[in-house]
């Protein structure tokens, strides 16, 4: 009889899996702008942010590290571009807002722990799983996790800034497996991005679970992810893990 699968390492995405922003980016930017005497519509800032972030990620992937930028410079540029696209052309007025926003997004107060995250992390811990973070994030992540009381659950926090490659690049997953001394076949990743998390982890031979939330599934996800890998919320993780390890009959 084949021996039963036992997952030894669980790796975690962070944004929109364990943590989310307390308020939308546009609101956050508009509040800080107002405090510096600038009135800008949150919706305009939100839309401009998405555009600026996408363009910056395309031109300078992974915080522009290979182009000589620091992640802080990279983010300050995103903020400057965001305000520019939202119609604010006064670069000098935006500079202190950009500094402030960089600090604020480092603060645990800007983030909130997703529902069920603490309980699920504790249950995974009790089960004897080793855990680590694998996140497309910059150097501020460790401090945020410490501030929110989550850091203690993880053996290590591997950001794309530290690894040098963002998910879904296989090298960031390989790096995590190497740090944990664990083979991919006994490791599983949890995240909310089909491409970066689900496919990225599967591509290196890890198991993976996709956190989808309660909304109807995207047709691509529905057609390509087995339903036992889909987590409508984090409270579905332990049952899904039991199923994966074969302790429950297939549904
Ligand atoms: Mg995410």
From TrEMBL:
Gene3D superfamilies: HAD superfamily/HAD-like, Haloacid dehalogenase-like hydrolase. One of its GO terms (cellular component) is nucleus. InterPro entries: HAD-like_hydrolase_domain, HAD-like_sf, HAD-SF_hydro_IA, HAD-SF_hydro_IA_REG-2-like, HAD-SF_hydro_IA_REG-2-like_cap, HAD_sf. It comes from the Eukaryota. Pfam families: Hydrolase (PF00702). Belongs to the HAD-like hydrolase superfamily. PANTHER family: HALOACID DEHALOGENASE-LIKE HYDROLASE DOMAIN-CONTAINING PROTEIN 3, PTHR46191. This is Haloacid dehalogenase-like hydrolase domain-containing protein 3.
